[in-house]
Design a protein that fits this description.
The protein is α+β, with helices and mostly antiparallel strands. Helices cover about 20% and strands about 35% of the residues. It is built from 13 helices and 33 strands.
Length: about 725
Amino acid sequence: MTTKERALGALIAIAMMTSSSASAQGLPSAEDMWNEAPPAESSEEVDERVGQEAPVEEEAGSAAASGEVEAEEVGAEAEVEAAEGVSDDASAEGESGETDEVLGEKSETAFVERERISPVMNLEGAPGFHGVASAISPGALMFQVGFLGEASGGSNVIRLNDENRTLSGNVAVSGQIVENFGFNFRMQARNNINTFGRPQAMLSQGDLSAGVIGRYEVSPGVWLGGDLNLFMPAGFGGVGLSASSLSLRPRFLASFDIGQMSQQQGGGDVPVVGHFNVGYRFDQSENLVPEGVQLDRVERFAYGISAYDLVEFGIGAEVPLPYVTPFVGYQLAVPVNGRGGVCEADRALACVSDIGGGAFPQKISVGLKAEPLENLGLHAGVDLGLTSSDAEGLPVTLPYNVIFGMSWNIDTSGPTIIIEEREVEKVVEVEPTLGYVIGSVVNAESGEAVGDARIYYTNRELAGQLSGTESGVFRSYGFEPGEALELRVVHPHYEEASASYTVVEGEGELEVKLTPLPRQAWVRGQVTDAEGGPLANATVRLSGEDEPIQVTTDEEGRFEAELQSGAYTVAAQAEGYLTAGQDVSLEPDAELQMVLSLSEAGEQLVELSEEEIRINERIYFETGAATILERSFNVLNQVAAVLLENPQIERVQIEGHTDDVGDSEFNMELSQARAEEVRNYLLARGIRVERLGAKGFGSERPLVPNTSNRNRSLNRRVEFKIPSTQE
């Protein structure tokens, strides 16, 4: 059999292997291809046949030829691999040129190019690198197993003139159960050899860590999440786990796929992914040490024992490329909450609090991740220690630590389905153009949109529609142009409305105005004296836009009133007491609870006229200041009572005046401050801010000439003017 015949046979065999999937897609099966294949031909016949078929395929004149092209596209990757194998065999026989001619058409098949490598593990078994974790989900039902090794060595690492070598192995498993939730597990064995160690070789076998992680893509390319990891070290100097040394670290994660974010904004692909981690490690590793045993520096490092909790930060960036991903990261741990006795006077090293930031464990990571084969991840990198000073209670940060390993991805979500888009010319019957009502429901009084109004078509058997909650807009069903519609619009807070509309082609506008129904509100409260005792038979007057409502308190001083929503002045009066109350605004369907405390009336110090509220006693302030003295509280309470008893007074201007002593600019500022302080007092007594103005005039408007101390005393005053026109 010739090389060309072998090539043709290989293609037919591959087609037979994919016949079931091809048939399922309506493509020629392997059996069809076998039946159509001619018997073995000579080299000349193959050359002649290939030369004849090419123009037929170019003209696309044959349905069978089109079917063969589709079958080749479905199994593109498998066929090209087989073609390469045949080409190698042919090359060995010196006939590669003829084989290329037979398989030339398949080289034009489009491949799905890999854009980025699969996720690779960090040292805890989670997606990421070294000590930095990624918040990006690798996809539902994606699992990984891997091995990561660590190696370091050198002199003067833990103690002066020492020789130290460290070798660790990490076996890790991770899984993404659903898109937004996963887990990770890691077992570690670690051997440290130091010339000052006793013994020199210290082995820690079976350290475990396990964690869960949740993440969510809040916007394209932006992932936020959190993980919770548990750390259980092996026993001190043994191989059993120590439950009392269980450490815990919750952590916040954020990742940003700059390329995806850029493409979402219409920009180009920027292959950069950034990560940020921050967490708190509740470290209990010191519980490994038996009571009475004093740790030395070598043991503390070899077993990873810390006397501090740690606030851990991690930041990193990686550049995802089709086959490799370089990365760089930075990690910082801030020691907090040191254990008792860690900084005793006879310590060998300085305390963290003495050294400061130079003792904080920190390192920078650089390295490379790769995927030479699909699902096979390789990892190589180094951590470079940046800690400048060793501190008591903290393991030494290595000058460098080489990290290497591999992982394998297991995707159990099923085969990837590639959807091929084709243009298909179809004959579509054009339906007749319909008409639609674009309606808006508004408040007939304010013009504001009315949301959640229900629209019924009274002359059609159609389900009702709702107007938009915010916009008040609705879009009707489609109707034939010229149809007459009768609409009924209902809302619980408005009178029912009807509307008629004749449908036009396309979209037509309709506005429906709803008249608001009176909305009720309730006021409930109690009237008491200054000591809190109830006042029976007190009168409570509620004044608003309509006629005032007046109610009387019961034996317990309680009252209640039902009225329409709006602005009201509530004033409580009882014989022998000063009126008290409050300006209020009642919302529809709301209830207001009040307690009104009345003080004894005493001597009347206030009179009301058309132009002003006249006070028969001065308002006293601290000298040169705006602080009201307590002796003036009574007169101001009476001013508030007048405003509550007379809600028709819509506005009062509080005017502050001084004498001419001192700087005029200071006097102007002082008079303004005193007027505002009086307004604040009345606001606290329940007067609505819209009813009160405040203006200082300094010494510009004296009552009498400032020619004597008595006259100046008269000019230092506060007045309550009522504007001539009440709106």
